[in-house]
Structures are given as C-alpha cells and as structure tokens.
Fold each of these.
Amino acid sequence: MSKRFVNSHILFSYLLFFGIHNLIYQFFFSFSHHCDYPRISLQLNEVPKMPPKFQKSRHYLECTESIEEEVLEEYTKFLDSFQVEDVLLKHVPILLKKLKVPQCYTNDISDCIQWFYDTQDGRLSRSSAQWVVVTQLLQHITMTVTSNGELDVSDIVDVDKLVRFCVRLIKFRNSHSFILDSWSLFTEAAGYTNSDISKLRLSLQDLKMIKSKLQLDDLSDSILIDMLGCSGSTVDGDLYNYRISKVDLLVGIKDFGEVLGQLGELD
C-alpha cells in the first residue's frame, strides 16, 4: 500500500472522527498501518488495545502573545488611519485582509456581515435560519449582549472578543500550506484534480466516493451524514463557520482545518 494511500486513509478518519468522536476514535485506532505522514507522528501499530479517550487540543485556541500583539497592532492602525473611535462589524473583513488570512477562511464571515447590513441589522429577517448564524457572529465579535432574554444588538467590535476570534484564523493562516496539502488528498480521492481546492466543498456523494476508494465500504453512510451535520461548529456546538447559505450539508477546507486544529496538528 502506498504512503499516499495510507495518508489519505488516516486523514479521512480524522474527518469522520470529528463527527462522532468516541465511535470513530475506536475505528481510527483499529488501523494496523504505520503512519509516517509529516507532522502526524502516530504509530498505529504501537497503540494500546483500548484506545485512549479523545481529548481536544489544549493549545489550539490558546491566544499566544504574538497573536494578541498582531491583532491589536492592526486594530490600532485601523483606528488611527480612519480617525475613528470604534471598529465596526463592517470593518472586520478589512482587518482580516490586513492580517493576511486567506479568503477561503474568511469568505463566510464577510458574507454573513454583508447579510446583517443588507437586512437592516437583521431586523428584516430575525425569524430566519440565517439570523441564528448572524447572532453567533455578533456575540463572537461585537458588544452584542443578551439582556432579560432579549438580544441587545450592537455592531461595535469588542477588541477582546476580536483577539479571541482571530486566534483560529491566524492559526489557519500560519498552517495554510499544510491544511491545503492535506485537503488535496481528499479532493483528489473524490475526483477533483484540476480545481481550486480551497473553494471546493465535499458533499455526501463525494465522501461516499472517497470511502469506496479507500476501501472503507463497510462503514455506514449514516456516519458520513453525522459528520456532515457537525460541520460548521465545534465539538462544543460553537459556530466557527458562518455560512448563511447552507442549502446542503457540505464540508470545506475551513471545516477540515478545524478538525486538524482540534487534533493538535496546528499547535
């Protein structure tokens, strides 16, 4: 079996593992292959018979001093350049561009923000599914708070929240080449060879094709559906992907980056 095939096998297990953690962790550790993929140092023929309980990376979303300084520097530069007292939600895409975060990790954020302003701060569509997504973005970045059961909406950016919000995105940026190379193993297995893989989103049919190619046909399709259902939010149910046009359940590079981060590959 080729090294590339084994690497694809391992990485596919990572995605599945994210959907239903304990079941897939045992499935993952049932492999007898030796994994020598760069930066993934698991040796599956040396693990104990009973797999250890899954634990999220303790450092993935940890805000380092360098990340905090970088975000605060761009925040201050923005205030000085535009001579304003506050950064608003509509300015966040500009800041993310200044931080050089690849657009494949920020397009969802920009679209969500645009929807917010297009619907008059959400007032026109607060009963919609999109508003649920926008609400989380507001709570993650702005001074929006819940008071007496009511959402007090503000589009003024809370600088402390902004720093925490940018941790994940900056880690994606710093590991973009690694994430992209790993993601390419999946997209190639699904038959995408001449596409901009950073824009690709894999459907259930794509995942079935990958499953078949990696000789995982005994794996139930319901597991794939569970995995797709979990894409877009963390294991704690917190959104990290703010797509507001979710017609179908799809997995993209941002979801994949989150998996690698939770597994400690971006620490």
Amino acid sequence: MKFQDMRNNQENILASTVGQQMKQIGEAVNGYINIRYDKLSTLSNAAGTGTDPGPRTCSGSVCEINYQTLINEGLLPSTFIGVNANKSSYKILLRRGGISPNYVINGLITTTVPWSEGNKIRYDLLGKAMQTAGIDSGMTSSSSTASGY
C-alpha cells in the first residue's frame, strides 16, 4: 500500500468518525428538545440544579446549551468529552420560532474550528462527514450566518 493510499484511508476514517460524532450529538439534541420543549418554548434558563439539570442560557428567541447539558440529561454518555475527532468543540443553539402555543424549536450544532489544512478548507472531508451524519447535516462558509432549507 502506498503512503498516499494510507493517508487517504486515514482521512476517510477520520471524516466518518467526525460524522458519527455529529450524528450522536444531533440525536441527543433532538431528544433534549423533546424532553425540555416546555422550558424551551418559554425560553427559561436553567442553572443546572433541581429537576432541570441544565445548564441552559436563553436570550431573545435563542437558548444555548452545551454537551454537558446533554450528559446531565442522560442523552450522551458521561465519557463524552465535547470535542470531535478533528479536535473541534461544539456550539449548540436552540431557536424558538412560530407563534404561541405552537412554537417550533430548531436546533443548530456547529463546530468551533473549520476543517482546514494549511489555508484550504477540506470540503472533501466535510462532505464525507456530512454523508455519515445524515440528512440533517450541512456546512456553511460563514462563522456568523447559516442558511438552510
């Protein structure tokens, strides 16, 4: 096997692992929205005590949680470290839309570090990770704006 083939195989495995991790955290966020819909629809903060373990911080129409919130709810294993195989942490935003009483809670999970090598974004590996993560995954070229359909 050539060195380049080994490197490609390693990169494919890494991309697949990152996709699996994103899918895992995405499924946990979906579960969290189901469990805490009442608190999210009223944009209630949670300090991490009592029956609502949090932490959850809400401002405007957006609530932010982190991976520890999902661990506290039992939706991720306690061994989850909040950093993917590409050494990027996650930011999880939950946005309330619609009108009362039928609010819709949309979740957005982003990684905090772009997947790049040198000055070039590795769209090939992002695409492979998205393939593994599934239909709800995507990418954006902006760190401040996300668009989707």
Amino acid sequence: MELAVKSTYSEQPSGYVECAPFARLQRLGKFTDVRIETKDGHEVVAHRVVLASRFPHLEQAVTDCVGGSLKWRRYDRNIVEAVVVFAYTGSIEISMDNAVRLFLMANDLGSRTITSWCAEFLQPRVSRENVEQIWSVANATRNTHMINICVPFIAAHFDSIATQVTFHSTIELDSLSSLLSDDRLVSVAGTAKLRTIANWFEANSTANKEDVTAFVDEDDDTRVATFKDLVGAVDLSEITSDDFDEFCMSNCWMSLPKEFRDLISDAWKEANTRGPMRYYIIPYTYPPDGIIVYTEMKFATSEWKEIEEKIIARSAGAELPTAHLNFRHNVPSRDRCVVAVLNESIYMIGGRNEDGEASRLVDRVDPFDGRVSSAAPMAQGRYWVSAAAAVNGQQLLVFGGYNGTTQMSSCEKLDPATNRWTSLPDMPTPLTFSGAARVPGFGVVVVGGYKSGNGNLCTAELLSCSTECNGVEKWSWRQLAPMMQPRTDPGVAYFRGRVVVAGDGHCINTGVECLRLPAGDNDPGQWTQLHSIENGTPQSGSLVVLNERLLLADRDGNVHEFVRASDSSPLTLEEFTWKPIFTIRNVSEARLLVLRRQR
C-alpha cells in the first residue's frame, strides 16, 4: 500500500485543546501580543500565554521578549506557522517536506508530542535518499526514537551508507559505539564495522574543531581508550583469516596510526584464540504442569552447525532431516518454574517447592554438562512467571506470577555480575502466564497472560530503561496496542524489527502476529496478522531467533523456519511463510532455547 504524502496528527480525536477557542482570533490577528520573526523575513503572530502554556521551554523567552518580538530565524515561516497552529489547536500536518525541520524545531521547544509524531511519520518512509539526513538529525539531537527508526535501514544497507563522508562527520562517539554493538546489525560483517571505525577515526582526527565532535581535542591516552571501546563493540571472532588479511590491505587500514593497527591486530588474535562464535539449540521438556510438585527437567544441547548441514544436504521432496538428540541431562527442577538463557547458562527461576509453596530459589545449569549451581534467590517467591534477558543481554528480568495466594504485578532483575536481584517498577497489570522478549533499543515487551476475573489477555506492555546523568538506571512501563488475539504462555521473539508472537499455552489461538515497534511515547504500535503454520500446532514458548533465523517448534517435534515465500517476494514479514526444516526425535512437546558460545 502506497504511503500518504502527508498526515495530520491530533492530540485528541476531536482536535480540541484548551487554546483552541482562540485559534480563530489568532488567524484574524486578534488576541496576539507577540510577533515571531522567521528565517525568511516573515512575521507570525501569537499570544505569549498560549506559547508558554504549550511549550514550557519558552516561558522565560516570552516573558523577557523586548517589544513583543521573538526571533526564530533558524526556521522558515511555514514551519513556525505549523508549530503555532499546533499550540492553538493541538493538530499539525506533517509531510516529507517538513518532517525533519518540524522535528528540529519541536526538539528546541521541548515538545515531545511533535517529535514523536515526526518520528512516527518518518519510520515507514526512511529511504536511501533521506536516511543520512534523518540519521544526522537523530545524532545531533541524541533522540532515541529517531535513532531507532534509522538503525534497521542502516543495517540493511550498511556497506553503502557507512562509507559516506557525512555519516562519519555527523555521528557521535557514543552513538557509533551503540550502533556497532546493536543486535540489529548482527548480519553486518565484522570487517565492515572495522572499516567504519577506521573511517570515523580519520574523519574526526582531521576535522576542524567547529565541524563535528570534540574528539580532536582529546589527549593520546583518551583517544586510545576511545578506539579500544569502539573495537570492543565488534565481534572479532567472526572475522576469518582471509577477511582480516583483506582488511589489512585496505586504504582505511593504512591510514590508521601504527598503534591502532597493532591494537586491532592483537584484539583479533586474542578473539580467535578463543574460537569462533558457535550457536546451539536446546530443546527441553518436563512433565506436564500439575502432575507432580517436584520434578526433573530434561534437555539436550546440540550445535546448530551440525543440524544446519543436514538441512542443506536434504534433497527436494525428501523427508525432513532428523535431529537425534540424546536427552541425557536430567536435572531436578521445581514444578511451574520458568526456564531462560542468559550468557552461557540456563536458569530455572522460581516455581513450587516440595510443600507446594511459591519458591524464591534460582538454579543455574551448565548446558553442556548439566551441572547445577545456585544463584541468588529472588526477593519474592513466585511461579507461572515470564522472563527475558535485557540490557544487552547482561541482566535477567522476571515479570508477575503467582505467590500462592494472589497474582503479582511485581518484577525483579538479576545482575549475574553481582549475583543480586533488585526490584523493578510494578507492571500495570498483575498477571500470570505472560510471554516476554527483549527488543534492542526499546526494552522488554511483555505480552498476553491470564488475569483473574478477566481471563486470557491481549495486553502488551513495554518496560524501558534510560540512564540518568549520574549513571542511575530509570525504568518505566507504558501500554502498547493490544494483540489481535488473547494468549497465555505465548512464544515471543524479536525478528527483523518486529515483536513476533505465536501460539498460546491452551492451543486456542494458534496464529502468528507481529507488532510494529512504537516510534514515540504517543504511539502504541500496531499489530499485523502473519501466516500461521499450515500443518501443526505451535508449542508454547518455542519461538526463538537463532543467528537471524526465526524458528518455531510445533507440538509434534517439527521445527519450522519463517522465510520469504519466494525469492521474488518482498522482504516484509507479511509475505513470509513457515517452512518445516527438521524434526526433533525422542521427545514430544519440547520447548526451545538458543545459546551463543565462543569457544
């Protein structure tokens, strides 16, 4: 569907706000006491009370303006008029001609409403022609929403975009580091990222002080530390010897100081002594809920490369390749615990103890030898919870659950580095049987579940984290658009810039849908129906992403991949379909985990 050239955004369906009755007077030049001088020499009239009430950042300026005149000479008349109309009516028209300029002015005025609308308008319209301009503005304003709408497009066109001079001259150090380590760039080659670092360093080292960053003013030790941080954002273990040799013959390599060439070389050698990154798929199972209180979890860890070789070798029309898994690891587990992966360990969280009481205990399981050790217990006992990794996969979060008496809204996070749990803000909805997934650049999305008195839920809620100037984390919740279908214990994964949800624990809603990630605080996002598995019922909690492949197990042990319907099909998820790729033997109704390990 062709996108509209322009869109009108309004704070309320009726378009009415407190200042709306004065809009007609303003158009007639009445009830105005301030003139705004624009870049192109025009004047726009308004009343300072209206401006101050709508844009608190202007309170001092409109109070102190001499002769009733404000000078907004960075912006043309049409931009200033659009913002003034918004101040009176709460509505604004955004188009490709004015979106970026409106965003900049709204950012200066401190209007999060307009900036989020501009980001929402631009999100589906990012293209090769405008991405550099949007990216430049995003970095100049350090606006997370604008950065997030650019990252998926940059990832898809990294080689062409990252070679542009404007890309290096406008991106700040912290933005570059975040970009290089972003999960959405997992498909970008490591050598391409190293070239970007080298080009960025050269551009900023030779820049005039007034042009870009303060990098040229840093001392040698600081520049070395900065360079180390950037190189550390790249997974060097994935760069082969041939690719690294080719990079070492490139012009950008030759332009680097010897100290930095040695630094990259040493870091690459060290990374490759540890071996390349390997991916593992871990099916696991335990007796159905409620059969016994204290039980065992069975699991098998298999290297994905071995399974992938069978998939590739399969001839057309042949039976699905079989992954013969030996479920030799049987570890004691608590009934109704939640199982999650963090770093290189499996965690079994909460559940019910031998007396049937909600447990605080947390066990850490080695996925390769089955050894079990204890992690710090949670602050509150709970079961029927959901869990997800967060903060670049370095923390484990749990949401809601049941304490044996009531459903819970409380949440906690585990930091394995300190082995400590800390409390998070309560969820808006107390619930059990929800699903959760980490969304890079946004936070953790929690979907579905069950609430006593309401039944199965369609809810979707986002927990996001920002860092204050003093380094303190600030967590907050907000509601997203509800799912199209209510679900309990659904599979949830982040794939190609969308939150994908599949199946439910009761096998009632077996369909698949995805959420377009919100561009701003005022955007709840939008769910879209996707193709379902043609033959099979999705196993709850078995939707995973493995090395940029979306996999879903069904209740019969078949594993399906979400792929383009044909080579000529568009890349939008609506045109993807499920294709069975292998079968898990020796077990039925297995759930899936995915693990990365560098060895």
Amino acid sequence: MGGGLAPGLGPLLQGLAPPRPGLAPGAANGSASARPRPGPAPRRAGGTGNGTGNGTGNGTGNGTGNGTGNGTGNGTGNGTGNGRTMGGWRDMSAEVLEDQYSPSRWSRRLDRDTIIDAHLEVTAAGTERARASTQTLLHVPYGSGDREKLDIYFPTNPSETFPVLVYIHGGYWQCLSKDDSGFAAPPLVAQGVAVVAVGYDIAPKGHMDAMVLQVRRSLVFLMEQYPRIRGIYLCGHSAGAHLAAMVLSTDWTEFQVVPDIKGSVAMPPEQGREKNWSPDLGQGCRAVETQLNENEAPSAVGATQAAAPPLPVPVPLGAVLVSGVYDLEPILHTYVNDALNMSWEEAQRNSPMRHVTPAVSAACEVLVAVAQHDSPEFRRQSQEYGQALRAAGWSVSLLDLAGVDHFDVIEKLSEDSYVLTQCRVLGLADPEPVREAWGAHLLLWDRMT
C-alpha cells in the first residue's frame, strides 16, 4: 500500500472507536456506549420513527417495532427507528449519526469487516497495473512536505498539448495516498489524457486547512510548471470530492494563477503501453515531458511563489465529485474527527456548502455523482450541495448510480464496461443519449441548470 494507512487507523475505519459526546444517547440495546459496526443495520428494540430510504434520496418508510423501516421510491434502502428525516442530522442519536458516516456499513456486496480491506487491495493493485503499462513520472514535488508530491501518467500518444485529469483520493482525510490513486489511468492515457494523482498530508499529521491549501497549491504547480496543459479536469472521491469542491471556491488571485478547470472526461477502452517512466529513465521519455514542460526539470513552488507573471484568467468549465462530504459539521460528532481533531471554526471554514461562490459567465459544469448504496446522509449532502451550486448559477447534474456502494462507485473507473467509463458523462457533453443507453444504471438524472 506504499504507506497509505496512518498508524492505528485500521480499527478507526472499522468504526470501533468510542462514540463522541454531545448528541442524544443511542438506543441500541438501551445503551449509548457501543460503537455501531458497519454492515447490516442493527436492530433497535421498541423504536419507532421515520426511516429514510437509501434509494434516490426521496423515498421514505415508516419504522415500527424494531425501528427499522424499508425505504420506498426509486430504490430500496434501510431506515432506522432512531433516525430523522434527511437533513435532520442534529436530531439523530450518536449511534445513528455514526452509522450514517460509516460507508462500510451500507455496502450490500461485502460484509463490514472486509469491505475496507477489499477497497485498499483493489486500488493498490490497479495502480500497480497502471504503473506497469503507462509512461509515468512519479513523486514529482510540488512543495517541500513528504506527501507534497504528484504522480503523472502520460498519454500513450500525446499531442502537442493535452488535457489533464487531476485525481484527488479519498480515505476520510486519514488514509490512502497518491500511491493508490493511479488505477483509472490506463483507459484515460490511451485517449490522450494525462492523469495526475495528488498527494497531501493526511491526519493525524495533516489538518484540514493544510490539506485544502496543499491541493490548491498542487494545481498552481501544474499551471506554472506545465504551461502547455490544455485544461485541468478535476475528479475527487469521498474526502477527495470534498477537497475538489473546495478548489471550486478558491480565490485564485491569492496564488497569481487561475487553473483552467474544465471538468472531467470520457474514459475509453484501455490500451496500455509496457513502459514505465520515472525520472531515472532520462532521455527515453524526455520528449513527452518536454511537450508539457517548457522548463527542463520540475521544481516545487510555494503557495504564493510565482515563477512568472500571472497567467490570463481562463473560464473554469467543470469538475466531477463522487460520493463526497460537503458540510463538515456532522463529522465533528463522529469517530472520523478523532484523528482530524477539527474545531467548529475549522469545519465551517472548510465546508464547501458554506463557501459556494457565484458562477462566472459560462460557468463550469459540475457533475455530482452518488452511489445507490451510499448512506442517506451522504446522498443528502450530494443533493443539497448540487442544489446550492445551482442556486448560485452553476450548471449542475446529479448522477445516481444503481447497484454500487461508496467504494466500487470509484473502483469501477478502471472498467471498460462501467457507465462512467463508457460515456462522456464526466464532460457532461450530451446527457440524454447516456440516459437512454444506461437507464438501468441511473436511478436519477437531474439536469440542474
């Protein structure tokens, strides 16, 4: 895994840390002391209330007796007797809230004890395959920190200029790394798109303010170091979707550069090339690097250091956000914050929902994607953030993917037959043909303009 997991995070990811204080006591077995396990919904004796459907975010069901109700609507999900309607997270018990923010608890394909390990294995193995079949420039520093590095996967047959997909990994801001983030590269590089996996300091070493700044600085580095990039395409998953959303609210004048953020791209069939590229390989791959980089070798730049006068301000055109968290306040009351140690002020400062900026002319198009088997809270956050962007004038589409959970919704980006791989949905080119061809896979296609 290349050191992707911070020490001691295995138990945390399984949802075993003690509950945090400050919310109403849980009702599991009459005690609030037990940490909810990810996996099948626990039974709650004598509970009644409204269960929230995990189908489209609109379905609801009534919980009676044991407090578990079946969701209805365009999908099936489980509600909990102690829960409240979507949007009412402050009324949830500590146990229910932590269930909602434990993605492994909602998977239908693997049990709670294996889903995390399986995800780590899939992303690591996929990245190894990508490095073996793609020209790469690994561990490129964009700053002085240990994790302030980029992995670049170059197109198989690059043109004079080409677009770049910047992938920001998830892991609840406390696990995974760029070394697990190249799994989607082969199909993209075969289409002439470069892929850049961004590294950033994860908790407990990293804190939220620093992570957001690091991701922003990585884009500044790309724009300054590689001026021949033909637009940056953002893609983030889970915590990475949060960081990508924070990029959209950046005041780039502070950095003397504005990234040409275009959104995302289609993922064509894989055509790998059996050639590794690292800085040690020198002349054999220098020609490809030269097309990107007018300088001879990459060098790190700081947050406010500018190697040249400010670039012309381009119009940003989009981003893809997959199963993200856009309001950090609920996280303060869950086990996730044990490692992050966020204050209320820090959570407010770094919540994309609270920093939606008005869209500029011809604003970037944003795709907010969510999995059918994400929790109701994850689904609520995705829909509400999309609606907030729409209200500010952004062009937004919500893609609800059937039959996937929080983990394989992103793992499948490496599969030729996956809906996100086959269509140009990441660029939002023409959604209606995609809807017709993949209707069985899309629970909801909401063109919010």
